[in-house]
Amino acid sequence: MTEMKTVDDTRIARQKTDTPEDWRITKLIFDLLKTPWSKEMAKSIQERMVSFFDFAFVNIGTPEKVRLFFERTLEESAQISKAHIASGEEYLAGIKDKKGVIVVINHFGLYKATMVPNENGKYPVALDRISPFPVRLMAMKCLSDKLNVGLFETALELPTGLLEIQEVCNGITIPNEGTGRTQMLIEKVETTLNKNPGAIVVMYPEGGTSGKSNMGSPYDLLDDFQSGAFFVTAALDLPILPACIYLNADEGLELHILEPLSVNGLDEKKIKEVAQETKSRMQHKLDELSKPKI
After folding, report:
1. pLDDT (tens digit, 9 = 90+) per residue, 79-88?
2. Antiparallel, parallel or unpaired: β 240-248 and 101-105
3. Do 169 and 67 form a contact (C-beta atoms < 8 A)?
4. Which residues contact 261 (CB under 8 A, 6 or more apart)?
5. For 227, how many CA atoms within 13 A lie in the half-sphere containing its CB?
6. What does the pLDDT look like over 160-214, one tens digit per residue?
7. Distances 17 to 4, 20, 84, 122, 160 between C-alpha atoms, Å
8. Residue 191's CB: how many other CB atoms inside 10 A?
9. 0.90 exceeded by the pTM?
10. In the chain, what are the domains?
């Protein structure tokens, strides 16, 4: 008789990092750390992620303490990574004073170089290594600081134990599978923006680490974009701000902002077309950034 999978089984399976695809993309991420500074940067951030999860698991009964520690950890990590807006700052004028903005961004896998070991079951979750989700937001911290607004990300639910931490730390979560997830996301984003006017909500339309499932590199082959982020913006009348994360091994973690857009009033077919057009724009920028310097 086949055992029924639980919701947590699905969450855990999604977080496993022992597949050939994961090993391959993780090696490529480490290959990007080609300078003494970048190697030390990743090491220092990984140490801070260990400290963060140590604190979070012990103090999750006091959520506000965990959230404040998360904010401090994110601030320190952004500084260590030298995260900065490298281009496109002029486009921010078009989104200021809006009720919120959806940032669609490449799912750059730097977090794979800063994974947190769960040796001897140190943390109460059935994973050998924990993906340090605060790392995904480091490059975005400079943007939220610039606009002086809150910073949130949408993500799939992590396993029990981690999920509670994820949601305390500005995570807007949806189930790993099932129907009605886009509507659920619309409602959660709307609630978040009602409580945090003007906030940035980060979404990853690839649905997974750049270059992992399609056997590309971290930059050269974005996956086809899922349309959920674009339907959220249409439903809530929000601007979309495309952006690209790029690691300069000397200058730091770069955020390249592209021209904002709107899908208000478009039908479903056209919204899906805009999603793929946005992917093409972002791929063009990443190709430009990653081509060999002469």
Report:
1. 999 999 999 9
2. parallel
3. yes
4. 239, 240, 242, 274, 278
5. 17
6. 899 999 999 999 998 888 788 899 999 999 999 999 999 999 999 998 889 888 8
7. 23, 9, 29, 18, 18
8. 11
9. yes
10. 7-290 (3.40.1130)
